[in-house]
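Appendix B, record 7
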Amino acid sequence: MSITDSSRTERPAHHWRPDQFLDTYEMLTLPLGPDPDGEDPISATLVRRVDAAPARNGAVLYVHGFTDYFFQTALAEFFADRGYAFYALDLRKCGRSWTAHHTPHYVSDLAIYDEELNASLDIVTGDLAETGGADRVVVVGHSTGGLVTPLWLDRLRRTDPARHAQVSGLLLNSPWLDLQGEAVLRTGAAARALAAVGRLRGTAPLPRDLSASYGESLHESAHGEWSYDLERKPLGGFGPRFGWLSAIRKGHLAVHAGLDVGVPVLSLRSDKTRFRKNYDVAVDTADCVLDVNHIARWSPFLGRHVLSVAIEDARHDVFLSLRDPREHAYAVVGDWLAAHVDRPAQIDRTADVEAAR
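Structure tokens (predicted):
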């Protein structure tokens, strides 16, 4: 599909304003072109942490998952302490970008997101140039964002190497790389049937309810310690749609065929999966959303330099885990940044996969 290219020769005036949810953060509305799925008007939202400290190591661009938006300020603080400016993108129809006329989180092709991803990368690198920060960006993707971002970088490497050269690493937090559930759902016949229904009835809801166990493990109103907006991230999630799941499955199959994101990758996951229909304490120390064996299997297919690490007792969002696994995850990220990203001249990007499972 055709991807809209933002000009890199002129710096438009950006009208940042205080974020609606987070103190010491600002938000910027990104107007987008016509929605291929017919839900105009449409926009995305870029959020940044306000910090006067120089970004000596560059910047981070964070992309959320399904039924999610950026609220993980502790993650931003971790990167800020390491000398990174922090930005997060709420994709179209998600989080801050969602309005009442949108089908939440709906796209019929994950490549549609390239428009706001490219625009965000240009804004981040432009800000770094203006402030004298290091000219490189670490992309971070969680769950569905962990599928969207490697597909984007693989396309970017092939079609826009100048833009791709601004990216120095890819950090994935429980990336969604395969379809959980019964094996029959992962067959080629199932994918073809899903694609056919998606073309005809894209926004029709799937006849399957989502468990609220994960949301209840996180939010302070239930059993968790985290505060976020339940309209934009409901405990039971938004209902998935046929066209959206077909797009997801197309992305999975592209990963399984093999990508080359062109930068070092760190893929984090829990060490176990525990699916539950209702909340119990077991989901506090496991991924109750995705099958971690899928993450382990397919992470090496993302590029030539992939480190895949299981975090004992982590949740689906490893950075929202209980304290010990959360600190373990941050330590792993810190070591990876020091070894592979903070000093990019030392990286051999043609190396074989560093670690698989």
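Remarks on this record: The chain has a mean pLDDT of 91. The chain has nine helices and nine strands.
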